[in-house]
Specification:
Length: 90
């Protein structure tokens, strides 16, 4: 399996740091008795940001299975692995 490329790794870590900040902000909102709808809005934003990071990692796995020329498995086997990953993490 492939690890994220350095430029993708840096962006992924930045994105996760932003999600971490959003989660801390949500905790403060709850501690300060903020209205539920405002908390939900922030949770939605954090979830979407985390989903985007998830899909970037999934793309890394797909690239390593499909595009990586050093992968000597037959294309049908590689595509089966991608399908299994999509099913597992969907």
């Amino acid at each position: 399996m492939q690890t994220p490329q350095p430029e993708h790794k840096s962006e992924l870590l930045k994105r996760l740091a932003r999600v971490e900040g959003q989660i801390r902000g949500i905790q403060k909102l709850i501690q300060n008795d903020t209205e539920c709808e405002q908390v939900l809005q922030q949770m939605t934003a954090a979830r979407r940001a985390l989903d985007k990071a998830f899909f970037e990692m999934l793309a890394c796995v797909i690239e390593s299975n499909v595009i990586d020329e050093s992968n000597d498995k037959p294309v049908t086997d590689r595509m089966s692995e991608v399908k299994a990953l999509l099913t597992k993490y969907a």
